[in-house]
Specification:
The chain is of the alpha+beta class. It has a domain of about 210 residues: FAD/NAD(P)-binding domain. Helix content is about 35%, strand content about 30%. The protein contains ten helices and 20 strands. It starts with 9 loop residues before the first strand and ends in a 15-residue tail after the last helix. The mean pLDDT is about 90.
């Protein structure tokens, strides 16, 4: 680990060494070189990564970012999503009618790529170490800021930095210390995640079943495996994950169907409470929130991590543009630009996923008719399908350079 002298100011200090924090560190160091001092702070850095059976769908823009910073080439176990099918039915309906289908030809590339969390984190950790970024195995304590620096303590030492990036998760300590409020609401839903094996090949096809209790997503992994993200009311989710294996499998088959043959549960099923939470401000004096510290949204569109990586691309570009001109990377103008770039897009995506969850997670016959009509109209409009595919990929509007696969 590169050792920065504590009394020498950092240019950027990053709290959190998860996917978002690590990606930001690598992007900045590769862009601005050894003369730009970056450090990442996280108590987990001295530990072996915890076993993580979760998977993530990396959208097109996020994939381009990882390609640009040299991380994508380190991944070997990656499954492209080549088609997607969306259905809307009740749990016991004999037929699940497909109302909307996408194929990779709608955007001339796969919609997304499925990657296992632990593989992505291992690739990012390698990139962090090769970039000779200072890695400090400590959290950041109380901090203060003035016109020139943010000051904080970590690992018993005092640090100064031009900019402090909070990538410390949904329960962000730095967000709390900065007295930034959030707009939050729980869904009384939990997402059950697990990895499954199946007898037949999925051919790279993802399926999103909308059921009255919530969405049931089947996401293809390498080999004859799939990941599921299964939304249920929280009490029901707790009951389901506590079932004996045979009973859990029966509940699973009822929702998964038999199209891929016999199923096998390959990882323990875990349930995570779902919520929407968006910070009222993404910035404070010499502080920028990124990833879950700034926003948590419903997972039904698979956009949570991708939104965080859009934050990374935007913040890295704002910092790099200032640094190349010899300007302060934590100056109010740079932070205001970052907030303008990201907060409106985040609010729009948060409201969209919240609205979709409300629209589909109910028993209303009238709403089912209206939403199925809408899905059918989109399915018959190639231009609309292309727009939605590009929106999900993060390639509409004012797109940061890294999301276009360009260097900053």
């Amino acid at each position: 680990m590169n050792k920065q002298t504590p009394d020498k100011p950092l240019d950027v200090a990053i709290a959190g060494a998860g996917i978002v924090g690590a990606a930001l560190g690598v992007a900045l160091k590769q862009t601005l070189g050894n003369g730009f001092a970056v450090a990442v702070f996280d108590p987990s850095l001295t530990k072996e990564p915890a076993r993580d059976d979760r998977t993530v769908a990396i959208a097109g823009g996020a994939r381009r970012l990882f390609e640009a910073i040299g991380v994508w080439e380190r991944l070997t176990d990656v499954q492209p999503i080549r088609a997607m099918e969306i259905t809307d039915s009740k749990l016991h309906d004999a037929v699940r009618q497909t109302f909307l289908e996408f194929s990779e030809h709608d955007e001339d590339e796969p919609f997304a790529h499925m990657v296992e969390n632990r593989a992505l984190m291992a690739a990012l950790r390698e990139a962090l170490e090769e970039a000779e970024i200072e890695l400090v195995s400590s959290g950041i304590g109380a901090y203060s800021a003035d016109e020139s620096f943010a000051q904080f303590e970590a690992d018993g030492k005092k640090y100064r930095t031009r900019l402090l990036a909070a990538a410390d998760g949904a329960q962000s300590k730095l967000r709390t210390l900065a007295k930034i409020q959030t707009i939050s609401r729980g869904y009384d839903q939990s997402g059950i995640v697990a990895t499954l094996g199946h007898a037949r090949d999925h051919n790279g096809k993802a399926v999103q079943h909308f059921l009255p209790s919530g969405s049931f997503a089947i996401l293809p992994l390498t080999g004859k495996r799939s990941s599921i993200v299964w939304t249920e009311q929280s009490a029901e989710a707790k009951r389901i994950v506590a079932l004996p294996p045979a009973e859990f499998l029966a509940e699973l088959e009822l929702r998964f169907g038999l199209q891929l043959g016999e199923l096998e549960v390959l990882s323990p099923a875990r349930a995570y409470p779902l919520q929407i939470s968006i910070a009222r401000s993404f910035i404070a004096e010499r502080l920028a929130l990124v990833g879950d510290a700034a926003h948590v949204i419903h997972p039904l569109a698979g956009q949570g991590l991708n939104m965080g990586l859009r934050d990374v691309a935007a913040l890295a570009e704002c910092i790099a543009d200032n640094a190349r001109l010899g300007l302060d990377p934590g100056a109010p103008e740079a932070l205001t630009r970052y907030q303008r770039w990201r907060r409106a897009d985040t609010m729009a995506m948060g409201l969209a996923t919240d609205g979709l969850n409300r629209l589909f997670s109910n028993e209303s016959i009238a709403l089912k008719y209206l939403r199925d009509l809408g899905l059918g109209l989109v399915d018959r409009a190639p231009a609309l399908k292309k727009f939605f595919a590009r929106e999900a990929a993060g390639l509409t509007g004012d797109v940061p350079k890294l999301l276009r696969g360009e260097y900053i």
